[in-house]
Amino acid sequence: MWCFMDPIGYPVPGFLQRDLFNGIIYYRHFGGEIFEDSFQFVLWDSHEPPNLSVPQVATIHITPVDDQLPKEAPGVSRHLVVKETEVAYITKKQLHFIDTESYDRELVYTITTPPFFSFSHRHLDAGKLFLVDSIPKVVKNPMALELRSFTQHAVNYMKVAYMPPMQDIGPHCRDVQFTFSVSNQHGGTLHGICFNITVLPVDNQVPEVFTNPLKVTEGGQWVISTEHILISDADTKLDNIDLSLRGLPLHGSVELNGFPLNSGGTFSWSDLHTLKVRYQHDGSEVLQDDILLEVTDGTNSAEFVLHVKVFPVNDEPPVLKADLTPVMNCSEGGEVVITSEYIFATDVDSDNLKLMFMIAREPQHGVVRRAGVRVDQFSQGDVISEAVTYKHTGGEIGMMPYSDTITLVVSDGDPGPFVNGCCYNGPNPSVPLHTSFPVYDLNITVYPVDNQPPSIAIGPMFVVDEGCSTALTINHLSATDPDTASDDLEFVLVSPPQFGYLENILPSVGFEKSNVGISIDSFQWKDMNAFHINYVQSRHLRIEPTADQFTVYATDGKQRSLEIPFSIIINPTNDEAPDFVVQNITVCEGQMKELDSSIISAVDLDIPQDPLLFSITQKPGHGLLINRGFSEDFPENKQPANPDQKHAPVHSFSMELLKTGMRLTYVHDDSESLADDFTIQLSDGKHKILKTISVEVTPVNDEKPMLSKKAEIAMNMGGTRIISSAILSAIDEDSPREKIYYVFERLPQNGQLQFKIGRDWVPLSPGMKCTQEEVDLNLLRYTHTGAMDSQNRDSFTFYLWDGDNRSPALDCQITIKDMEKGDIVILTKPLVVSKGVRGFLTTTTLLAVDGTDKPEELLYVITSPPQYGQVEYVHYPGVPITSFSQMDIAGQTVCYVHKSKVTVSSDRFRFIISNGLRTEHGVFEITLETVDRALPVVTRNKGLRLAQGAVGLLSSDLLQLTDPDTAAENLTFLLVQLPQHGQLYLWGTGLLQHNFTQQDVDSRNVAYRHSGGDSQTDCFTFMATDRTNQGFVVNGRMWEEPVLFTIQVDQLDKTAPRITLLHSPSQVGLLKNGCYGIYITSHVLKASDPDTEDDQIIFKILQGPKHGHLENTTTGEFIHEKFSQKDLNSKTVLYIINPSLEVNSDTMEFQIMDPTGNSATPQILELKWSHIEWSQTE
């Protein structure tokens, strides 16, 4: 220790406390590389003898001072060997400097001279240093950035590498250097250090080949030299290059030193260079060949093709095409093109277009022309361009064809297309090397030409009957043609006939049905010769033609004759049916009507006209036809007393007689018929026409009405009876029912006649009337008004009247049944009604009689209504009634409606029945049947969710079945498919049967236990039933298929939380209470669990801090046992530093866990802080 008394310091063996206070005691370091020192001392006081303390040791930490330069570690080579295709790491074996006062990351290498090639003055790419992490894959990558500085730490961890140049370095090794300096953090630097790199060549470049075509004459040979095959290889000497024959040429061979090479044979670049390799052509007629070769440097190889261009030699004669057409056709006087279809030749060593055809023998009946000029030779190019023709010049040849011949010689004497004065050194191609030429005869067939028109000849007059048809023959119409057969001639109509048409009765081709009746506009001479052509006189109705004609010409298909008319004579016939017109007549009852020409009219259009005869085919039903002649025996409006005596009935008459004074008359027989008719037939000798004349008879009211039915009326006293047509009915032969009147002269004594007007019945008075139609409509009735002791008969008087005629007075008798009402007898039978529906009260279930036939007077009054329903009218549902009659029961208009939901088996109501004189009491029993009509409804099907391996109850909150008319113990779930990963339990035991009830669910006796597997879902399917009806309702729809109940299984958390962040917190803050604390947050301590939320990740404190305590900033409470990750996230965990302790660190041990008990290994959290005090020198 040194004591510094200004300005000199000296070592001391001891010192006083005040020396420390005065700051004059110092420790002085001697400067060695020792960084820790200590001294031992003893304290004593001023007593005698002094009190001594135990020995104390003071430790001194020396802060090192970096005053050393980096040194190269022993054994370092500073040399790297790398292949040119690879990347080499720079490791500690090649580059390693050390500094005892600096860390490796503080030793920095700086590249002062980038890598360069030794012994080279050119600025070439010599590679580069790069950082390994700068590229995705450690291979040669031109995108890697060149590294200019790095640390020893990077070298230690193989982060620095050398990349050779991207270009190939050639076949030899290359030496690369770079210089660098190394420095520490205090600036100590070593300069000019050299690093050597040897780059080894790699034979990885494929030889490159460039070729020039080899030129050779047909059948010749030529040397293959380096002028034809140029080879270069960046990393191989040419003397080490070999070539091999991969495929033999198709039209020659490759020779080495005069010997042919087989496929796979090899030769060197030196053989190529010294002209030892040749190509020999095989003499075939091809213009090119290919040699497939492979070049290799021993490691890499490439295939290429040497093209051979062959110059031909004219040594082959022309050859005619094998499938030429032997005969060429030409029309008389015509010209036809000689195409390559008839003459064509090929020459393997000559241009086919320049082959010459020389005419050795001229044709006898024509000439050969090219472009319209006669020639004796032409080229094949002329033939292909269709410039050569044969023209027939022999004139008319008659009807038969004949032949002509051209003899041709084919020559290839012209020079070929491959002659080139600069490079062709073969034989003269203008001189063929062959001696023979092919000779060919071209045959020509000349056909005659049809150029003469036909002529027509007309025969005797053609006659046909009106409306008939007659065959047209060659005697009437014929044609001739000197150069065409008659069967090939055709007649064509220019204008058709006016009153008929021509037909061909032959069927069409492919059909069997005749074409009779189909008009034609042309026909063949041969069809007319076979009598198949007819003229049909079709237009003759309403007209009388006497002649017809058509215009026709003949043709042979090319030529046609002159147009000539063909006349037809038509003989008239009785072909017209006469026109017959009749009119209907009207006649008064018992009168007559003359049938003049305005009623009966007939005309015959035939020329000459035919006699017309009328006959009565159907006589009148209520009269007769007579001929009145010229007599005036009685006027038309008076009926004769007996017309049959003076005038006989007419049965037939002629038109001539009708026109010359005959008076045909219809006489009615005075019957009550309103209509009559008769039928007249008209005939002209051939045609017959029927016409019916309808007679409308105007009636005359001359008949008296009479009573057709009168029945006696029998009824009860005080009753009412409808007087219908079953009691009174009148008829009148000439008056309708609405015109027949009942006129009442005397009315009943003990009752009333009443007529219905609208809804009211109005009493009738004497002299009033009603019609038979109103009686038919039940609008008249009799009502008895007499007392009990009155007479038992009544009557009224009336007569019938039709407006003109009346009948004698008539009486209608009425019998009154005077019966007294007896005792009331009640017959009842229980009414069976299903619950919730209605039942009708009928005479089978409730009947009361009192000896009379008046059920409407038997009145029921309900004294005690039913308890579980009500009695109501059918037509007024929902409205209860208290009284009804026996007539209502007979009409089934009263019913009982069950309304209560109470389950009972019967109901009843009490009543009093009265007929006006007597009264009886009764009880009506009702049996209620229980009928299950409603379908069960699945109102809840929410599914179950539980933990893995747990048990869950199937409560009514999850599964519920309801039915308004079925008890819960009868509502049954029928299981179709059981759970696959668990089991259903009923009353604590496994479910043995495949069903349970809603009561079991309501009683919480149905449960599901999961089997504990890894499945996350399970299910079972069920069908619901109320044990009565088929089906059940789900979501408002009827369902008969199984329904799914889903079970969701939550997997247990088996994964323990893990620490993702654990740092030592050191940031101290001053609190409001003056204390210091450190917040423990998620920035320094963090745990995660994929299956657990942050508030459930618990940090359990195994050993708390020793020099402080933990506190919750939100609640202010001490944290002794645990805190959560959520507390760390919300910055609520605070470590309070104990101010009384001079410490600057603390620790606590904890363990993290989740709610399921999964826990991680214990961890220690270390807290560090600095304690700084400032002292002021006195």
TrEMBL record:
<feature type="repeat" description="CSPG">
    <location>
        <begin position="576"/>
        <end position="683"/>
    </location>
</feature>
<keyword id="KW-0677">Repeat</keyword>
<feature type="repeat" description="CSPG">
    <location>
        <begin position="453"/>
        <end position="555"/>
    </location>
</feature>
<feature type="repeat" description="CSPG">
    <location>
        <begin position="822"/>
        <end position="914"/>
    </location>
</feature>
<dbReference type="InterPro" id="IPR051561">
    <property type="entry name" value="FRAS1_ECM"/>
</dbReference>
<keyword id="KW-0325">Glycoprotein</keyword>
<protein>
    <submittedName>
        <fullName>FRAS1 related extracellular matrix 1</fullName>
    </submittedName>
</protein>
<dbReference type="Pfam" id="PF16184">
    <property type="entry name" value="Cadherin_3"/>
</dbReference>
<feature type="repeat" description="CSPG">
    <location>
        <begin position="316"/>
        <end position="411"/>
    </location>
</feature>
<feature type="repeat" description="CSPG">
    <location>
        <begin position="71"/>
        <end position="183"/>
    </location>
</feature>
<feature type="repeat" description="CSPG">
    <location>
        <begin position="935"/>
        <end position="1025"/>
    </location>
</feature>
<dbReference type="InterPro" id="IPR039005">
    <property type="entry name" value="CSPG_rpt"/>
</dbReference>
<feature type="repeat" description="CSPG">
    <location>
        <begin position="704"/>
        <end position="801"/>
    </location>
</feature>
<feature type="repeat" description="CSPG">
    <location>
        <begin position="205"/>
        <end position="296"/>
    </location>
</feature>
<dbReference type="GO" id="GO:0097094">
    <property type="term" value="P:craniofacial suture morphogenesis"/>
</dbReference>
<keyword id="KW-0732">Signal</keyword>
<feature type="repeat" description="CSPG">
    <location>
        <begin position="1057"/>
        <end position="1153"/>
    </location>
</feature>
